Amino acid sequence: MVDAIPTPRASLPEKLLRSKAFVCTLIVLPGLWPAWPLFISRNPSVLADPLKYVLHHLGFLACVLLATVLSFTPLRVIFPQSKLALALNRHRRLVGVSAFTYAALHLATHLVYEGGFGVLASDVKKPFLVTGLIAFTILLTLAVTSLNRLVRALGAKHWKWLHRLAYVAAALAAYHQSAARKVFPMQVLWIFVPLALLEIIRIGIRWRHSGVHKIT
Amino acid sequence: MNIRTPKDWELPESAVTDEAIYRLRNRRDFLKTLGVGLTGAALGTRGLLAAAAGFPDKENPLYPAASLKPTAYNFITSYNNFYEFGTGKDDPVVYANKGWKPDPWTVEIAGLVRAPAKFAVNDLVAKLGGIEQRVYRHRCVEAWSMVVPWDGFPLAKLVALADPKPEAKFLKFTSFLDPKNAVGQQDSHFGWPYVEGLRLDEATNELAFIATGIYGKAIPNQNGAPLRLVTPWKYGFKGIKSIVKIEFTDRVPSNTWQRLAPDEYGFYANVNPQVDHPRWSQSSERVIGGGIFAGRQPTLMFNGYEKQVAALYKGLDLTRNF
Questions:
Q1: Cα→Cα distances B310→A98, B187, B233, B270, Å
Q2: pLDDT digits 0-9 by tens, B113-149
Q3: Structural domain includes residue B41
Q4: Structural domains in chain B (count)
Q5: How far apart, in whole angstroms, are the C-alpha atoms of residue B214 and residue B134?
Q6: Does B97 reach chain A within 8 Å, measured CB to CB?
Q7: CA dist., res. B70 & res. B135, Å (int)
Q8: Of the candidates B74, B87, B141, which has its C-beta nearest A44's C-beta?
Q9: Lowest CB count within 10 Å: A195, B41, B206, B285, which one?
Q10: ipTM of this complex prediction, to 2 decimal places
Q11: Which of A49, A126, A183 sits opposite B144 (nearest CB)?
Q12: Do B292 and A43 count as a contact with CB atoms less than 8 A apart?
């Protein structure tokens, strides 16, 4: 595990990234952002359909956090000396569970947006809804199994395999996000392409070092 | 006293009083002059002001659809799909008002007509007898809807002016091309300029309308100034904005959205709750301005204009011709 002993002269960014309070703030603040156009600037483009804005915003944050948490491991593999990458890896569970939390809020908003379960039930055959629901189910499973007791009960090996489903969730979320709109939203690329690049580099590194030392 | 029989498509005016202030201010001079000069003269003093703003004189208590109320002006004019100025709903209100000038504007009438011509917008409106106001439902293919009080003229009048030849069967509409001032047009993937089309009999249907205003004000840039097609029984993307050319032709014109995704958007694009978009349901819609807990309302066949347009599509398989 990642419990490195803090060096006496940790840089400020490292200190901040190690701090749970700081990372929590980074996670919660964007969730409060919709209050600005809804209540303070009263942006009519947002007020025209306020719930749609909230819905998209929460889904967007869930995607960002999912891509973020998945980038932690490759960052550590690619930059093994980096204290920042090490600091980030302390927060894998926090960021992962936050991604799930935003996804849950997103789904709850969707239910209000559709005025109940009716549309969800009739639309469930649509690929964009199915992918969203499967991705959510995966995140739910991973969030539940990140409780200490269940981690132990599962055993490290099974737990690791199960939690690789996060990659499936990311792929589904990317599709879900791009299919929900009339045209392909560029933000999907901004969120998921950097992650894909990190993964490719990480796989390359692992391939070159295969058999020498294994990192996950 | 101005007595008029309400048409079936007329929606009540009951809810627009709070926008009344808008109607009497800030109009483009040409519309004011035309409205007062051509329509107002026949209506007397009280009618004069209303007519200047393009509105019918008073509310119609007989019309049954009393639950429908026009969407607030600031929502109609700040929640727009006008990809020439960006793909966000909040983009057009900003980027269509940064240097792009729909005035002066010339529209060309061409193709299989006996009277091809180019008109300055003002001259065209004058030639067609001024403007009138119609409150129409507006249903976007993205499953949201508004109710819009449009000002403008029936498209049928323009068709009559053009005097189509017998072989003309379709109208092809073309919007402007100005990538320098329309930032969205710098993304060439859409194949600008935007094009749309109608069958001739659709274009001469009493509902087909060319808008020049909203709520009695000149139509804002982001809503498709200065001339914008309104076909309320079709999805909003048929309503091509900022028209520069109307060409009469004998073959089906292609339309931008069909070119982009032919499996999702067709030529007809009639509002139809029974035919879903491949990626989402069309059976219900969110009402813009309804607030957070508005939920959805059922979508109506032909957006509630079945009586006026259903005959146009008799015998047509609407599932295939979506």
A1: 51, 37, 10, 10
A2: 999 999 999 999 999 988 888 889 999 999 999 999 8
A3: no
A4: 1
A5: 9
A6: no
A7: 7
A8: B74
A9: B41
A10: 0.82
A11: A49
A12: no
